[in-house]
Amino acid sequence: MSPSSFVDLVPMLICADVPASVRFYCDVLGFEVVDRMDDVGATGFASLRNGKAMVMLASPTYIPRAPRVEGRYPQAMYYFYVEDVDALRRSVVDAGGPATECVDRFYGLREFEVVDPEGHVLLFGQDTAAGRAPHPSSTSK
Questions:
Q1: What CATH code is carried by the domain that includes residue 10?
Q2: Residue 69 sits in which domain range?
Q3: Span 13-39, pLDDT tens digits
Q4: Which of 26, 32, 36, 119 is exposed most, by the fewest CB atoms within 10 A?
């Protein structure tokens, strides 16, 4: 049994041009912007929702530049919202898993990363900001 219940999983897609991707997801696929920060990373960050489905679009500068395959970014990072990020990290490390240290981010989440055996980046985060609205999926149940 996991030391922390998982709350949600939201794919984080790496984008060279977050604003263009936001336009596509909203105009073509009918998503709505839940959160947006145009001044972070190379071209910003956005969290989008359509019904109960969510996606994050990011251009982080704190990870190595993602390679393109045939002109596209084929990879994604997977973001798990959890109830107790520190307990989960301890459990991962105790099991011999490769976990980064927990970091309190300026956007109100405490998180750590794991790279799975196939190279997929898994991020685990917990809301920490006082007065922060709950994760969007928790209000749409």
A1: 3.10.180.10
A2: 6-139
A3: 888 889 999 998 899 788 999 999 998
A4: 119
